[in-house]
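Could you help me review a protein record that somebody else here produced? My question to you is simply how this chain folds and whether the tokens agree. Thanks in advance; the entry in question is below:
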Amino acid sequence: MTALSKLNRSLQVVAISAIVATTATVSALDWPTKPLSATVSAKPLTMLIAGRDHKFFYEAYNDASDIDGDGLLDTRFKPTITYYGLYDSTLCYGYSGVGNTGLFAPLGTADALGRCTGPSTSGEWSGNWLNYVTTSRIDALRKVLYGGTREVDSTTQTILRRSYIPQDAHSWGKEYHLSHGYKISEYTDLADLTANNVRHFFGSLTANRNTNCSTLNNCSNLPPLLRIRADVGNNARIWEWASKERPVLQDNLSTGGFPNGTANARDLTVRVEVCTASFNSGCKLYPNGQYKPVGLLHDYGETDAMLFGLITGSYDQHMSGGRLRKVVSSFRDEVTANTGQFTAGARIVTTFDRLRIRGFNQSSDTSEYWKSNPYSDSAKSPKEGELIDWGNPIGEMMYECIRYFSGKGAPTTAYNTSTTFDTAVGLASATWDDPYDKTGSAAKASFCARANFLVVSDINP
């Protein structure tokens, strides 16, 4: 044994002897009865990481999935399935108004299969059926997180509005036929069919094919439509109207070669009044006596049980990176405590509400995407700033989140250059902080607070 090793061992013995002597003369140790970590209260930190590419705006129920897990594809509406969307699946609705004043309002309760008991002339619509026909992926996501996009958010009324769905391959159609196994009159205000060669068609879209969308509101402020073409004969099928060379879901079915195509043609607006005094299942009652729709962010954020932040993709750099929209912090600053209304600075809610298809008719009215010439090199290998609705670099967004939680304090420079398109859409970036900085951050998180990702992305990023 070397002299240095002997010295270290001697010092250790002396130190231990001193500790034992001291504790013996003072008092016996009071050993804890549970782990020390169990006595520390640390709010979990959760960063929402969300793509923002065009696939958010596809239909939620694509008729090619096994929704109820019975081993069979659900290729049409199935009454035994509860469909999620802006409508309450347990209620029946009436419709009134036109254009942007059109509104579905709750009338009564549906039965266990979502059927409305009144005859077809009563004008009742099943909430469950409406969810199946009208819900997009982004609508379902917004509903899960915070109750849906509120077009009207007053102290006396709440109206939800479906997202902007351009009149192209993102819009979709459904059909009804006698063979579908349920009566359409029990789910809509349409009459039951009597002939095998006739169908009802339903299209979900925003009718903007002849509108230049260079000013965003020119298109996104158009009514979100449920387009109905009833009693379409000649054995016509829905894909002949909804899945064809543009324009899809055009106004006049007769131009598509369908006899009776213009009979019983209507456009209804997908806006719905929710959380009324009489019908408020799943809503939260606030101190002012008003019910408001809520989601997971309310459940875990209004009580500060968890702290939330948000990273999304960018329209300017849609092929790389992601941008911090809100630092990890309390969700309570997004909700007015007394009324349940969203605040003007509700960063997570506002960001999700402003995600949209941008490039369709961006600088024309020709039903094309900006910089989408199929014969150009750009279309074959898109670059940053071209085809800005495509691109979902979810892995790089997660990388940015790791950097954020590790206290880097600033975004990756290469992922944060121009902001032209983000600004036009209304998206702002947040200044980074270190969530574990007890004095200089919004979270002021304890060192033992667990950092989490909640990633929202298409299965094929």
Remarks:
- The radius of gyration is 28 Å.
- Residues 1-27, 255-262 have pLDDT under 50 and may be disordered.
